[in-house]
């Protein structure tokens, strides 16, 4: 497999994504392969254009301008699945949900749930560590207008499938938004989970448990942490906290912090 100038293995086709993902032996290898993916020409062109042009407030920064891998340990019992990186968030910082308003919401909530070491995620190397949770996106490249196509979603699907397969203790998936909800079902079917018919509709607070080769997995729906939802009050902090509290209850992990800005419990 060829590598790019930064040493990431390059994948250029949907078939190549499937092969590369399936052969990744651990999360570190998977993350490197995700970072070199060039299988969706429209997304490659957009993410790289954004990285060249930049936003004025970030003009002195070096943008990541690549697919964004997941974040979190291999022993995670909870997975959080979002939509895609933001053009000037994850596409800039190289860390999922980092550097934008959506990330401010999700990492603060993970901290309040006892799953993150700090309530902020601003850049790689800022000290953030996750415990018991892995955060990923259904599509790994920033898409124009925050809208991946179904074909781009399907091309990216093997990355998510392999990532979840490399979490042997996974018990709960918190799915942010209808796009991620739709993207996850084929992944679960391919992993051998028995899926309900008809497929449950997405909604905030929806809870569905499926059985598979590694036991039960519970899916929890939450409105996405987009500004459209958070600014309008469609999604509030208590609503998001309730979903994560349920996730930690089901997974048997985490421990809430005291308030929104207080110190963690001993």
From TrEMBL:
Residue span, Uracil-DNA glycosylase-like domain: 69-244
GO molecular function (one): 4 iron, 4 sulfur cluster binding
One BP term from GO: base-excision repair
Domain of life: Bacteria
SUPFAM superfamilies: Uracil-DNA glycosylase-like (SSF52141)
Keyword vocabulary terms for this entry: 4Fe-4S, DNA damage, DNA repair, Hydrolase, Iron, Iron-sulfur, Metal-binding
Family membership: Belongs to the uracil-DNA glycosylase (UDG) superfamily. Type 5 (UDGb) family.
Protein name: Type-5 uracil-DNA glycosylase
């Amino acid at each position: 497999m060829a590598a790019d100038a930064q040493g990431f293995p390059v994948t250029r086709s949907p078939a190549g994504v499937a092969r590369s993902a399936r052969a990744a032996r651990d999360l570190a290898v998977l993350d490197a392969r995700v970072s070199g993916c060039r299988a969706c020409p429209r997304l490659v062109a957009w993410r790289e254009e954004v990285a060249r042009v930049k936003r004025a407030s970030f003009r002195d920064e070096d943008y990541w301008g690549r697919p964004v891998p997941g974040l979190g340990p291999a022993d995670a019992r909870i997975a959080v699945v979002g939509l895609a990186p933001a053009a000037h968030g994850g596409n800039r910082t190289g860390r999922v949900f980092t550097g934008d308003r959506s990330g401010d919401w999700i990492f603060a909530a993970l901290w309040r749930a006892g799953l993150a070491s700090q309530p902020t995620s601003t850049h790689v190397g800022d000290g953030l560590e996750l415990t018991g949770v892995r955060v990923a996106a259904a599509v790994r490249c920033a898409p124009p207008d925050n809208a991946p196509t179904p074909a781009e979603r399907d091309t990216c699907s093997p990355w998510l499938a392999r990532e979840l397969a490399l979490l042997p203790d996974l018990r709960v998936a918190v799915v942010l938004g209808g796009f991620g909800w739709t993207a996850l079902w084929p992944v679960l079917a391919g992993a051998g989970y028995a899926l309900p018919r008809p497929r449950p509709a997405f909604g905030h607070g929806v809870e569905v448990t499926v059985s598979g080769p590694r036991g039960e997995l519970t899916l929890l729906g939450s409105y996405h942490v987009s500004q459209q939802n958070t600014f309008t009050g469609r999604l509030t902090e208590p609503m998001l906290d309730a979903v994560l509290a349920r996730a930690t209850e089901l997974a048997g992990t985490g421990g809430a912090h005291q308030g929104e800005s207080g110190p963690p419990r001993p």
